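=== RUN LOG ===
request id: a7f3
mode: sequence -> structure
chains: 1
length: 291
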Amino acid sequence: MSDAIENLISILDLEQLEDNLFRGRSPQDGWQRVYGGQVIGQALVAASRTVADRHVHSLHGYFMLGGDPKVPIIYEVERIRDGGSFTTRRVVAIQHGKAIFSMSCSFHIEESGLEHQFEMPDIPDPEDLPDVGSFVAQFPDKIPSAIRKYWERERPIEFRPVDLSRYAGNPKKVPYQHIWFRASAPLPDSPEIQRCALAYASDMTLLDTSLIAHGRSVFERDIMVASLDHAMWFHRPFRCDEWLLYVEDSPSTQGARGFNRGLIYTRQGTLVASTAQEGLIRPISREGRKD
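=== RESULT ===
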């Protein structure tokens, strides 16, 4: 098992302090604030620890403050309702005495009923696409150093975007993208761990979609980007350590906010999850930028 995956599993293994109180830590990887997907994943772990015999089917979260990676995050779970078919939980993440994130999530018993889904787009298989490291090596002079450092570092989630050309020149394009991803090593078989790992990964590329129409990316230093909210729906079983396709689009940007949607498929074409997110995309003037 890779060090990155071991670290991810460790991060998702919260310490239980009381019945409804948990403590999580952040990786010490040099980032100035906690990655949003980590907080989503940890909050879902905390909620799941208070629920038995049913799985999460939806979550809705709001980011209020940037997380401090130097100190633990306390997750307080409120048991809103335990019904016959559904269970509802609310989780608040706290640092320095203030709420930095809140999330409501719902759990459902297994039931059968009507079924349909959108078909998966016809795109190349992940094996037919270059890995990110190969792309960086192919265009070393065109890719900003921030992007190179991010992609060259060992990460728990492996990505293979179908179209990497926007990072080499940032052309303005229709705001959608297709990205294959998976955990970089096998994860435990637990369905809860698989779902929490997917929640962790779901925040990684979604916000960037809203910048495609403007020829920008989240790696540029003259634009402030941050997740404001995040919603996710789990439709069908999956494994996050097998290839999944993230189909992302951005219907609108306005008022320094970008709205993004995502559909997540297995490579066999099964739609397993959907996401929606609004994020801050605020241009920063050179005069007002703090290096």
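=== NOTES ===
The chain has a mean pLDDT of 91.
The chain has six helices and twelve strands.
=== END ===
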